[in-house]
Amino acid sequence: VQLQASGGGMVQAGDSLRLSCAASRRTVSNNAMGWFRQAPGKEREFVASISWNGGRIVYADSVKGRFTISRDNAKSTVSLQLSSLKAEDTALYYCAASQSTVTTVRWMYNYWGQGTQVTVSS
């Protein structure tokens, strides 16, 4: 199973970015998908998760109202729209797949992508 995250970049505070995660059709359609992030010197933290059919979505409080997770099972992709970016959103963003339900728990994700860097300057 391979997950390929892309779309990161360097932006200014207040800007937007759209991250994408491509995977095999089987991986995306059968699993809950999530995004995590890790800033230098910090633990990897939960950002957002979406159920296999998009019916349930959970966000971290720190991104609620600014980030939007979505999925397109036909295209085998999961996206994360980042808006109103802040300097504290700077991190390496990872997509992951969970054979369980929607969850914020890192160890419940079975597959991980390589990460895409988001850098926000203030």
Give a verbal description of the structure.
By secondary structure, the protein is mostly beta strands. The chain contains 1 helix and 11 strands. The strands form 2 sheets. Strands 2, 4, 5, 6, 9, 10 and 11 form a 7-stranded mixed β-sheet that branches. Strand 7 (67-72) and strand 8 form a beta hairpin. The longest helix has 6 residues, at 25-30.
Reconstruct the topology from this structure.
Elements: E1 3-6, E2 9-12, E3 17-23, H1 25-30, E4 32-38, E5 45-50, E6 57-59, E7 67-72, E8 77-82, E9 91-98, E10 111-112, E11 116-121
Structural class from helices and strands?
Answer: mainly beta
Number of helices: 1
Compute the number of strand runs: 11
Order of helices and strands: EEEHEEEEEEEE
Mean pLDDT equals 94
User: For the terminal residues, how far apart are their CA atoms?
Assistant: 37 Å
Shape: globular
Helical residue percent band: under 10%
User: How would you sum up the major sheet?
Assistant: 7 strands, mixed
**What's the gyration radius in Å?**
13 Å
Weakly predicted, low-confidence segments: none
What's this entry about, in short?
5% of the residues lie in helices and 48% in strands.
Features:
mainly beta, single chain, 122 residues, 48% strand, seven-stranded mixed sheet, four-stranded antiparallel sheet
